[in-house]
Known about the structure:
There is one protein chain. It contains seven helices and four strands. By secondary structure, it is an alpha+beta fold. The chain has helices at about 10-15, 20-25, 45-50, 60-65, 80-90, 105, 120-130; strands spanning about 1-10, 35-40, 70-80, 115-120. Helix content is about 40%, strand content about 20%. Adenosine-3',5'-cyclic-monophosphate binds near residues 63, 93, 112 and 114.
Amino acid sequence: MSQRTLVLLKPDAVKRGLVGEIIGRIERKAGWTISALELRTLDRAILEQHYAEHVGRDFYEPLVAFMSSGPVVSMVVEGERVIEGVRALAGPTDPIAAPSGSIRGDFGTITRENLIHASDSEESAEREIKIFFPGIS
Ligand code: CMP
């Protein structure tokens, strides 16, 4: 089943020079393609939309500060079961719990700075793609 998903390479990934490494892992999956890609610094307004479900949580304000601390790479990735697939490549939210071989397991240590975001469902993907790439349908 071909799907599309919204992927963000967070400011820690960009600052640490891990963009090529992470995109390489995505590109090497058979049949997946990157159909939109942008480097940009996110402002509070877009982060409030993206993280609407987390407003009011104790980690929300530090998360917004971190996510606006430098440029991120935003991408739309398309292909077979790509929603589940990119989340499998990323590993679980807590990088210490993430297995080695996953992006977070290989490169992360703290939960906030966990390198990559990937949509968790088809509904989230469509919602998030509209936020980051309003020009594509
Ligand atoms: P992600 O799953 O992409 O989207 C929500 C983000 O909030 C998550 O990645 C982490 O960056 C951050 N996050 C989630 N839970 C915590 C937590 N307990 N402490 C700090 N940051 C968190």
